[in-house]
Write a structure and sequence with these properties.
The chain is α/β, with parallel strands linked by helices and 852 residues long. Helix content is 61%, strand content 8%. The strands form 4 sheets. Strands 9-11-12-13-10-14 form a 6-stranded parallel β-sheet, with helices on both faces. It has a 5-stranded antiparallel β-sheet with strand order 4-3-2-1-8, with helices on one face. Strands 5-7-6 form a 3-stranded antiparallel β-sheet. A hairpin with a 4-residue loop joins strand 2 and strand 3. The protein is globular, with a radius of gyration of 29 Å.
């Protein structure tokens, strides 16, 4: 697909903007901003809509969007002022005439189940809600136009559900797959999702990776393929692109089950080997033809040396280079990068010598893979000794690392012999390492997977693998243990963000520690990562890792074993797997009692109470909280006493003992304030508002919620802010201030969405439902309530029985005011919404002014 406006062309297949055939360099977010505007010419796009489209999974400020539009105006020149209008306080308007041209589009047969009932053009409203997550290409695609068309035709056939792009490393499978997905994305009305499996080495981690990518929460008694089927049910065609599948081939059965449970799904896979499952269509990614290979070489050479051009003198050497490299894109790019210091003739001379040297390579490797290895060998030989040392040591980073991380791992003994920054810069110049620079995080350096595998071989040959991987594990351990329990909210948020970036390194480190049976560090790293797994909802991965280390640790009565069992119980509780939670927590309690560890006993009782509370057994919950509190009072940890009092108040409040709840909260607040924990005090103050609300004293409830919100804002606790805002929204709605209620729920939803806190989002959606009913919109109320109920079902987080009953009573007028068909239809509409659609729907302004 191409969009032409003026002298510019937006080429979706290549992921770039062209002027007179030449690519204009744009940052990925700037490109996404332009693409969203160009696809909606003449429409007024609000800042909020544009930010949600460009940063769908992040909470950003207007500054990020303004920076993107400024960069866009600079890149496109003076005419941008006329074609991109800023409408004060309303948003942006793209005014240029846009001509749409479909390139390489393959029409669908009329009887194809994936054909769009409304034709290939999507309405702007539907397009805005569509999930579209593909990596933005950093270079243009050369010589693959026919392959894109052929693969697209195959994937769009009604009888093809799984298409696997196979070929050797460095053949360009990933780049081609992204181009294919981009070219036909319009045919998948439910969306397109890219999932990289490069960092995953265990087949049983593939399913959790799919769940994470699709933002699906694990629930008990449902497999991930079944949950994917639930998510995509009645949403229309959806395309899943899985990259680097060759190292997890046994997980092909997961794909087979997923396809079985989800008829509207198609899967595009890149792999060095076929998956060998029924229904698979294989597509071999062949080397580039001679002309395309030469074009790629010249283009990439010009990227490192702008004055480079193919001349009558250099053309024969370039042609021979491309021939010797079998047309493999990665090999050609590595060779072209050398034009910065060598002529094509000199490159050919060195390449010919290297090929002759390596003709006796391993015969069990495919010929193309041997050729690629020769190319990397040659690039490696261009490095000096210090650069080679850095190159091989840096290979232990999966998904990249920062300069600080490289210093800690690659120069542990101060024996590198080169300034680390200069060394990495040299490797970047030689296309052996890539550099990414994002404003919100420290600059990161990464390796292509094929090159990283080669570098790991070098590390093994140099007998440095054990020491370097231990240094890498040590770095990961230090980083993970920085997330100690007492971090302030702002520090906790920064640590979580850093862990998000390093998750692949954590996985690689744990693999090594498990393989070498380093139980001491393995236990420490697992325990340190528990908070990350829990707060970022990597629940299945956390359970797999914790169960593995528990099994490796064997039987015995160790404190670490008791703590791992405790963490397993907490994760099982979060998943709604209450039988497993009770098993692990009882095991933890038994171990702590055997060790005489009073602190552990208190913590286990508290966790057992939380699990009982979440499954609705409030009697057991109160009993265990009281036992836990009695233990804490015998220990010097007053902060734990305050937290237990807060939890106890929550349960006795549900059971109607308001006096006991208020007394516990007063004591908890006093302790929190005494210890300087203002965020903890704010949570207890907020819960006092809950008690006042339960007793219909809305004036007092508002006062408590306002006090808590002010404290949360002052301490920088976003979770607390969002919770107080939802509670204030309830009070505002009950008191008839609908505008204030709408604003409170809007802000709460945005905060919860930015945090990825699904229970919070469900609570805010339920509040929006009650607000809609108060405004007279019964159907809208049931749609929002249906969306919230569906979200709670997905994450296995039902409302407590008392709260559920109250919600049903508040929504009862909506059910009575509509016919049975209309009411059930509105509820079903909400239940079918994705989380993103539900949030967008809830934030839309009502069709009439909000009363105040």
């Amino acid at each position: 697909m191409q969009y032409e406006f003026g002298e510019f062309t937006l080429d979706l297949a290549r992921g770039c903007v062209l002027r007179a055939g030449e690519e204009i360099k744009l940052r990925p977010k700037v490109y996404e901003t332009l693409k969203y505007l160009v696809e909606r010419p003449g429409q007024l796009i609000s800042k909020q809509e544009l930010m949600q489209a460009v940063w769908p999974d992040s909470f950003v400020t207007d500054d990020s969007l303004v920076q993107c539009t400024l960069e866009l105006r600079r890149a496109l020149g003076d005419r941008t002022q006329q074609i991109l209008k800023t409408v004060p306080r309303r948003g942006y308007l793209f005014t240029a005439e846009v001509i749409e041209r479909r390139t390489g589009h393959v029409p669908l047969p009329l009887d194809d189940p994936f054909a769009l009932s409304g034709g290939p053009e999507l309405s702007s409203a539907k397009a805005a809600k569509k999930r579209y997550e593909l990596p933005a290409p950093r270079t243009s695609l050369v010589g693959r136009e026919q392959h894109v068309a052929e693969a697209s035709r195959l994937l769009l056939r009604g009888d093809v559900r799984l298409l696997t792009l196979t070929g050797p490393g460095g053949a360009g499978k990933t780049r081609l797959a992204v181009a294919v997905a981009s070219a036909i994305a319009g045919e998948f009305t439910a969306g397109v999702q890219f999932v990289s499996l490069a960092s995953i080495t265990q087949p049983d981690m593939v399913a959790p990776a799919l769940a994470d990518a699709l933002e699906i929460q694990q629930v008990a008694n449902r497999t991930i393929p079944q949950l994917i089927g639930d998510r995509l049910h009645n949403t229309g065609p959806f395309l899943l692109l899985l990259d680097n599948f060759e190292q997890v081939l046994p997980a092909a059965t997961v794909l087979a089950e997923t396809l079985e449970t989800c008829p509207s799904l198609k899967i595009l896979v890149t792999s060095r080997s076929s998956l060998r499952i029924y229904g698979e269509q294989e597509f071999l990614v062949a080397p580039l033809g001679q002309d395309s290979a030469i074009e790629l070489f010249v283009q990439r050479a010009a990227a490192v040396w702008p004055d480079f051009a193919s001349t009558s003198e250099t053309a024969p050497a370039i042609q021979e280079i491309c021939s010797r490299l079998d047309g493999l894109p990665l090999a050609i790019e590595l060779a072209a990068a050398r034009t910065k210091v060598l002529s094509p003739g000199a490159i050919l001379d060195r390449l010919q010598n290297r090929l002759q040297l390596l003709t006796g390579g391993a015969l069990d490797l495919p010929e193309r893979q041997q050729t690629l290895r020769k190319t990397i060998d040659w690039s490696h030989d261009l490095l000096n000794d210090a650069e080679r040392k850095l190159f091989r040591r840096f290979s232990v980073f999966v998904g990249g690392g920062t300069l600080e991380a490289a210093e800690a791992v690659c120069n542990t003994n101060c024996d590198l012999g080169i300034d680390l920054f200069e060394g990495l810069s040299s490797l970047v110049d030689k296309n052996l390492v890539q550099h990414t620079d994002r404003a919100e995080v420290a600059p990161r350096f990464t390796m292509l997977e094929t090159i990283r595998e080669y570098a790991l071989d070098c590390l093994t040959e140099a007998a440095e693998l054990p020491a370097t991987r231990r240094a890498h594990a040590a770095y990961c351990l230090v980083l993970a243990e920085e997330g100690n329990p007492e971090l302030a909210p702002a520090d906790r948020a920064r640590w979580l963000t850093q862990c998000d970036l390093e998750i692949d390194n954590f996985r690689f480190a744990l693999d090594w520690l498990f393989q070498t049976f380093d139980l001491e560090w393995g236990l420490r790293l697992c325990m340190a990562l528990f908070r990350f797994w829990d707060m970022r909802e990597h629940l299945t991965e956390g359970r797999v890792r914790l169960e593995t280390i528990l099994r490796l640790a064997g039987s015995g009565r160790s404190k670490e074993r008791a703590q791992i069992s405790h963490f397993l119980g907490a994760l099982a509780t979060a998943q709604g797997d209450y039988p497993a939670a009770e098993h692990f927590l009882e095991q933890s309690l038994t171990l702590y009692e055997g060790l005489g560890d009073q602190l552990g006993i208190a913590a286990s009782l508290n966790a057992l109470a939380v699990s009982a509370r979440d499954r609705g057994d409030y009697g057991s919950a109160q009993g265990n909280f009281e036992r836990s509190l009695a233990c804490w009072r015998l220990l010097p940890d007053r902060l734990a006493i305050a937290r237990c009092l807060h939890n106890l108040a929550n349960v006795v409040k549900v059971r109607g003992d308001y006096a006991r709840a208020r007394s516990a909260l007063h004591e908890a607040t006093d302790i929190f304030q005494e210890l300087g924990d203002e965020s903890g005090a704010a949570w207890s103050i907020n819960q006092q508002g809950d008690i006042s609300r339960e007793q219909d004293n809305l004036v007092a409830a508002r006062e408590f919620y306002q006090r808590a919100l002010s404290a949360f804002r002052e301490t920088g606790d976003p979770w607390g802010c969002a919770r107080s805002l939802t509670d204030l929204g309830y009070v505002d709605c009950e008191q008839g201030d609908h505008f204030a209620a709408h604003e409170a729920y809007r802000e709460a939803l945005q905060i919860f969405a930015g945090l990825g806190h699904r229970r919070g989002m469900a609570r805010a959606l339920e509040g929006c439902a009650c607000l809609a009913l108060a405004q007279g919109y019964a159907a809208r109320a049931l749609t929002l309530a249906g969306a919230a109920a569906h979200l709670r079902q997905l994450i296995s987080a039902p409302l407590p029985q008392a709260e559920q009953l109250k919600l049903e009573q508040r929504l009862l007028p909506a059910w009575k005011s509509l016919t049975g068909t209309a009411a059930s239809g509105a509820w079903a509409q909400g239940s079918a919404m994705s989380l993103e659609e539900a949030i967008q729907y809830s934030l839309e302004e009502p069709d009439f002014p909000i009363s105040g």
